[in-house]
Every structure is written in structure tokens, then in C-alpha cells.
């Protein structure tokens, strides 16, 4: 079994209420636990940035489901690679909301302190999520 990491960005459709983030988290955690998927989700009421890691087959199946999910639009894959170990093993889906704690980290890995994953490379997004994991409390 090959382990892979997939990082994607998407926009929240205007007609989707912010409360749907809880539905996404509940659904992701249930599905991911059952499929040995781990990862991290960042969200700022406009953009999603998500890293999912696990077996190649299960990560690909999960991404195909996300592509069909109406709670996301303009989905773009930023990075996909084989990995030798997981980096988000503590969470079936950790969640980091946008806050004043994240602004300096956003600036470190992108052109401004405003969170916009569409303006980031895959590697910058990956490194930012690793730093967020270490510096900002994750909502479980």
C-alpha cells in the first residue's frame, strides 16, 4: 500500500451557509476514520484548503467525492505526492479556522496576511499547514 498526500483548495459557494462547515467536518471525520484517512482543513468563510493523507486508493476515492460535493466550487489540486509517513496522524480531520493567530503564518507562506490558497504553491500550502499544526490550536 502506497501512502499519498493530496492538497486542494476550493471556494465556498455563496449560497452555502457558514454552518455547513460543521456538516463537512462531521462527514469528513466519519468517512476518514472508516478509511484510515488523516488530514487538516483550513477555512476562512470563503476558501477551503485541505490536506488529506492515506492509501492512494482511499485518498483518490475521497478526492473524487469532494469533486462532486456542492459545498465546494472551483476545486483545484495544489499538490499530490507519495509520502513515506503521515504528518497529520492525530486527526481524522483537524480544523483550523481563520483567526488573528493565523495572519502572520499566512503572510509567511503567501503574498499577504489574507488567507487565499489560490495564491499559494502546493509546497507553500503544505508548509503553512505544518506550521499551523504546530502553532495554532486545532478544533477537534
TrEMBL record:
Residues 3-94 form the BLUF domain. InterPro entries: Acylphosphatase-like_dom_sf, BLUF_domain. Gene3D superfamilies: 3.30.70.100. GO terms for molecular function: blue light photoreceptor activity; FAD binding. This is BLUF domain-containing protein. It comes from Thalassotalea euphylliae. The lineage of its organism: Bacteria, Pseudomonadati, Pseudomonadota, Gammaproteobacteria, Alteromonadales.
Amino acid at each position: 500500500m502506497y501512502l499519498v498526500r493530496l492538497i486542494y483548495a476550493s471556494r465556498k459557494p455563496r449560497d452555502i451557509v457558514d454552518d455547513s462547515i460543521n456538516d463537512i467536518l462531521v462527514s469528513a471525520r466519519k468517512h476518514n476514520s472508516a478509511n484510515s484517512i488523516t488530514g487538516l482543513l483550513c477555512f476562512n468563510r470563503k476558501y477551503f484548503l485541505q490536506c488529506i493523507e492515506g492509501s492512494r486508493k482511499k485518498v483518490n476515492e475521497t478526492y473524487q467525492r469532494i469533486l462532486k460535493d456542492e459545498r465546494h466550487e472551483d476545486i483545484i489540486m495544489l499538490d499530490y505526492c507519495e509520502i513515506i509517513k503521515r504528518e497529520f496522524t492525530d486527526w481524522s480531520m483537524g480544523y483550523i479556522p481563520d483567526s488573528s493567530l493565523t495572519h502572520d503564518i499566512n503572510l509567511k507562506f503567501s503574498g499577504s496576511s489574507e488567507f487565499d490558497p489560490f495564491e499559494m504553491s502546493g509546497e507553500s500550502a503544505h508548509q503553512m499547514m505544518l506550521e499551523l499544526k504546530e502553532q495554532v490550536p486545532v478544533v477537534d
